[in-house]
Amino acid sequence: MLSLIDLLLxxxxxxxxxxxxxxEFIKLAVPHRHSMLLSQxxxxxxxxxxxxxAFLFAVLTPIWxxxxxxxxxxxxxxxxxTFRLLACAAFVCLLLFYRPSGNLFDAYRALALxxxxxxxxxxxxxxxxxxxQLTQLSAVVAAGYAFLPFVLMxxxxxxPLTLLxxxxxxxxxxxxxxxxxxxxxxxxxxxxxxxxxxxxxxxxGVAALASLSQLAFMIALVRQAIRDPLTGVFSRGSGxxxxxxxxxxxxxxxxxxxxxxxxxxxxxxxxxxxxHEAGDLVLRxxxxxxxSSLRSTDTLLRWGGEExxxxxxxxxxxxxxxxxxxxxxxxxxxxxxxxxxxxSIGLAERCTDFVESAAxxxxxxxRRMYLAKTSGRNRxxxxxxxxxxxxxxx
Length: 394
Description:
Blueprint: H1 2-15, H2 36-71, H3 74-97, H4 104-129, H5 136-145, H6 148-155, H7 163-183, H8 190-226, H9 236-253, E1 257-264, H10 268-274, H11 276-293, E2 299-304, E3 307-313, H12 317-330, E4 343-349, H13 350-353, H14 358-374, E5 379-381, E6 390-392
Parallel strand pairs: 4-5
Antiparallel strand pairs: 1-3, 1-4, 2-3, 5-6
Helix pairs in contact: 2-3, 2-4, 3-4, 4-7, 6-8, 7-8, 10-11
């Protein structure tokens, strides 16, 4: 029985994108498992595609109104034209006034607005058309309005959405289709309606697969772009983005933000004596030791060479000092000669040090790291003058 389950799971796993690691599959299902940088870049992409979609609808929506004038009688085409102008105005507002902020909830709001406008237009126009007896050409043109939910459902494919987000959006469109059917209950063609509902479900499934495929490629590309290939921790470029985001959050909520600059002591002799492969092994081991001692909310960056940076959000100086001392007590790894790896550490904190920018916070931590190094290495420095308060990292 267990072997059958394992076989089934392996077959299902083979259907998932090969670009992802096994521990990343959960990121295709729910958004809260995404990193801060992935969420930011995904939010920006979603808003940009919302604006592109809004531009397309803003152009095409009023153009079709010409067909309405040519086919429908005066009271009907005027009502449809009113709905079209209102929808067009909403699309133009979405295009002009919505800009990417990198915030995922802003992206959700933009996506909701984009799909709400044509959904409301579909329900309103479907109800209005149901009040008239249409024949021949007018009935054919009116049937075209019924295809709007299919266009919207297929449109989900251009967004990198998780499975949960796809389910929510598809459910809303299916609900709109159900409401439109309820409003025209008396004249509803049940075989046609049931077939349309089933087709919507099929399109929703295909769109979800396309959307998840986009998300998988995005996860893989972002991972490659933001991670240091040697140690697996965040790279310097992505670290600067993370620090800026954490700084903005700390300023907005008036909370602490600590940054530690860590430089491994006497690292160059390892490369000179034992070779770069041994040095790389020490760096990887050191990064893993630090990661095992950090909180899930903290971020470890490889700044360059043997330098690392730790970003600790919602943390005051005393909490950060205790956390760093805990990391050092647990050890940073072992050198090829069997001795313990030590480090010179500089610590700065937003509130205690009264810094005015993320760059200034990082620069202050860097200066204190050099002060710790010139004061004998293997120590933590969290003051900046000659009478610096230092604690041995041993």
